[in-house]
């Protein structure tokens, strides 16, 4: 599997990486591709979700949290620099096989680190009875795209408030409830986040494919479709 790299270290918005997945699927002739990315505090919600039902827009605006819609299904997710996002692009078109392969990749990485992780029928990755990674999928002609959040660490207040509409006042029991459902990878491994990312890449990938400046320009053009208000606030899929 080839690791896809960028020719620069520019900090980019979440929408760029969504466009990068799609661009790689449409234009890069590799059987299996993988890359990781991190963003400033952002909320990303699923293709079929109604934005106003999932996102606390007032809280996000107050705290500088960006909001994006993806083309895959699934639920609303908060991301920031303390966790890492995974993107997998493959020519395999069978949904079940694609999910199974990707989740097994994540389990391989964690088990090699001594973490007894398991997968669920909903394609989540669990440590014990708590979720550490969730996945989502969509299909393009000839390709499947799967992306996942790996909770190495996160801002728990933002996670609770940004994706939960309602009063902005943080309730201690709210954080406690979230912490009972999720877990943070940093509590199970002796690696920093950067060390973990390096371990993931060396475990899963052989070789790399660096995108050209022209290809990056193509991604930036495609990114504009993810930023249109009629897409972000879309009610019907």
Number of domain modules: 1
Shape: globular
**CATH architectural category:** 2-Layer Sandwich
Mean pLDDT score:
90
What is the CATH class name?
Alpha Beta
Structural class per helix/strand content?
Answer: alpha/beta
* Radius of gyration, taken over Cα atoms and rounded to an integer in Å: 17 Å
Separation, N- and C-terminal Cα atoms: 32 Å
Fraction in beta strands: 15-25%
GO molecular function, one term: ligase activity
Protein name: Lipoate-protein ligase A
Pfam families: LplA-B_cat
Pathway: Protein modification; protein lipoylation via exogenous pathway; protein N(6)-(lipoyl)lysine from lipoate: step 2/2
Layout: helices, strands, pairs:
Elements: E1 2-5, H1 14-27, E2 32-37, E3 42-45, H2 51-54, H3 57-62, E4 66-69, E5 77-79, E6 84-90, H4 95-112, E7 117-119, E8 125-127, E9 130-140, E10 143-150, H5 156-162, H6 172-181, H7 193-204, E11 208-210, H8 213-227, H9 229-232
Parallel strand pairs: 1-2, 1-11, 3-4
Antiparallel strand pairs: 2-6, 3-5, 6-10, 7-8, 8-9, 9-10
């Amino acid at each position: 599997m080839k690791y896809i790299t960028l020719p620069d270290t520019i900090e980019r918005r979440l929408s760029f990486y969504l466009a990068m997945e799609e661009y790689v699927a449409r234009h890069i002739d590799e059987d299996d591709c993988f890359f990781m990315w991190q963003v400033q505090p952002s909320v990303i919600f699923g293709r079929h979700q109604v934005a106003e039902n999932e996102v606390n827009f007032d809280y996000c605006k107050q705290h500088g949290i960006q909001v994006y819609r993806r083309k895959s299904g699934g639920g609303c997710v908060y991301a920031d620099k303390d966790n890492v996002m995974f993107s997998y692009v493959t020519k395999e078109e069978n949904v079940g096989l694609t999910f199974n392969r990707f989740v097994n990749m994540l389990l391989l990485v964690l088990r090699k680190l001594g973490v007894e992780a398991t997968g669920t029928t909903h394609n989540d990755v669990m440590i014990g009875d708590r979720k550490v990674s969730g996945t989502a999928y969509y299909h393009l002609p000839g390709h499947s795209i799967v992306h996942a959040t790996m909770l190495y660490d996160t801002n728990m207040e933002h996670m609770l408030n940004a994706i939960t509409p309602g009063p902005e006042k943080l309730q201690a029991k709210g954080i406690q409830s979230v912490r009972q459902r999720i877990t943070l990878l940093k509590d199970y491994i002796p690696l920093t986040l950067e060390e973990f990312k390096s371990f993931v890449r060396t475990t899963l990938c052989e070789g790399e494919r660096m995108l050209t400046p022209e290809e990056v320009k193509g991604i930036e053009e495609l990114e504009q479709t993810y930023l249109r208000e009629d897409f972000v606030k879309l009610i019907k899929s």
